[in-house]
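Worked example

This section walks through a single chain of length 137. The input is the sequence exactly as stored; nothing has been trimmed or padded.
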Amino acid sequence: MMIRPAAAPRSRRALAWLGLLSGVLLVSVLVPPVREAPLSLCLVHLLLGVAGPGCGMVRAFLFLGHGDVRAALELNPNSVLTFALVVALWAQAAVRVAACREVAVTLPPRTRWMVWSAAAMLTGAAWVYNLVWNPWA
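Given that input, the structure is written out below as tokens.
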């Protein structure tokens, strides 16, 4: 893994990205979590009638925002990793806005392939979990 400074970003785009990610994190802290979904936001569920790999992710984010990791994992096993990714992207956007610099992480091709493969397997595993065992999806 190599970390290198990148070119200065456009300020409007960086501010918009930071605002969007801040909104996601702020909503996850302010909105009280619920186990039963009042409406489905999962496109796979709406179109096909079965739980998709992302089913329960919004409610899991709300539980994570309130510190309930167990409930989030029950709703969607990938929620903790996805929430961590959102926090990491938020931190990167904050650095980009504050310092007008970006830290770009580049991975060698083999490592990049391994990361994509692991992400695909985790998404597939979460989908199987949502289809077979998840009582909340």
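What to look for: Residues 2-132 form one domain.
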